[in-house]
What does this fold into?
Amino acid sequence: MAISASPPHVIDSRHGYAMMLMVAGSVAISFGGLVQRNIEVADSWQINVYRSLGMLIATGIIIVARHRGNLFDTLTGIGRLGILGGVLLSIAGIAFVQALTHTTVANALFILGSIPFFAALFARLILGERLRRTTLITMIAAAMGLGIMVAKGVSVGSGFGNLMALITAVSFASYAIIVRYKRQVEMIPVILLSSAIIIVISLLATKGDIAIPLNDILLCLFWGGFLSGFVNWMFIIASRHLATAEVTLIMLLEFALGPIWVWWFIGETPTTWTIFGGSLIIVAVALRSIFELINKPKREQTPRTPV
It folds into this structure.
């Protein structure tokens, strides 16, 4: 699950470099489901402890490296909305691991593919942003896909996992609205805060029982530290030089490739209804993004001065 800031509307001279970062990051983070499937003993709460610890360490390193001379102001500059964003992101993180634990990777990731539509809906309700006709049409298609997957998930016993994936999507979309509203503020500390919240809640849920095999610990740290920590930093850097539609379109790689890896390496096969419902969501997001790219106003491509 990728975390990114809202990108600017002007594409600069580093556009190609940003595209490369986004593609590489999306491919890398798509292995998260496969990593989770190779964890042998740890339950979802124990996974959350070590995964969030890895993310905490990685994010801490990034913040110190970038803001070592202004560390206090950076950490406290997120304000109350940033704290709310941290809470929402922690809910998304906990629910995400629960989703992967209680349903197929395909179900979880396809449902997460609806995040752009929830974000667009919340932007309309909270920020007053106008919904284009194409967005409304593709939202209806995505909602149909969601309905099919959730309904069929209940009938085959994966309803809880699908519900957790839906909570993840709603929580993350809400966090994205805060990031968009506070786009001029460095929001990486929010990831640090959410990681700390998840660790505390997970420790309480496990009653301090976090003794798991070393192999599981290393996988969780890799998942949180590299796949979620450093890769999300790559997304944040790249998204500053890409249009929103480009970011959304490239991030679909995570949701499309994730189910392929678990099918290829461990034989986890999604149901026909999962493929059908998920395809509706992925195609709807892709069409919306492509339409935005084709129809965006022509802007002067003025290279920025590198900083």
